[in-house]
Amino acid sequence: MADTFIDSHCHLDFPELAENIGQILANMTANGVTHALCVSVDLQRLPRLLQLVDDHPNLYASVGIHPDYELESEPDQVELIRLSQHPKVVAIGETGLDYYRLQGDLEWQRDRFRTHIRTARACGKPLIIHTRSAAQDTLDIMAEENAGEAGGVMHCFTENLQTAEAAIAQGFHISFSGILTFKNAHQIKEVAQHIPLEKILIETDSPYLAPTPYRGKTNQPAYVKHVAEEIARLRNISLAEVATATTHNFNRLFLGA
Q: Model-level pTM?
């Protein structure tokens, strides 16, 4: 039986992919990618995202507002809980902190993050966390808000091993994107080598961050296999082991299976 994979984080509702969704889904099938989680970044385009996952049984969705979306109206916890009740919504986010793209007083970003964590705890769904140049504040808020009660994933992980271990200690998974395949991604490769396999997920974050050998091109879920291959190489295990483990990890975290 051929190895199969799940893309734990993509944006199939973004124009680069949505305009060719039939081919994107066919490419997934051809490359053994059985399912994908389409992650919300704002509430304005959420209806289109939910329609997309409703139309395709192998797609799931999340509900949340990305920390980079400064001009969005702040989400209300009651509203997020209501939206999370959609049957194809399996997670809250993406949420978190990003001190790389935005400067100045970012207290609104921290408040938004807290709202998402409280929502996840209230509705019993895991968090999808984005952190960039903000690792310690991210971990501190996670601890203060008891994010481990909901659990979740540190998506597109780019921090060091110490940060990964601290997140795992709070009950979170670590997800690797195409960045892991980049030649100079030494820090992330170290993380992928040393953390427990049962805490690893794979993703594309498509349409961004296409892995080698597609670097610089539009990414898509079909390419997630290349991330799995790099994990297998780094850990000196078979691709089948990575495929089985990451699929099981996804199903356990997001579907309770």
A: 0.97
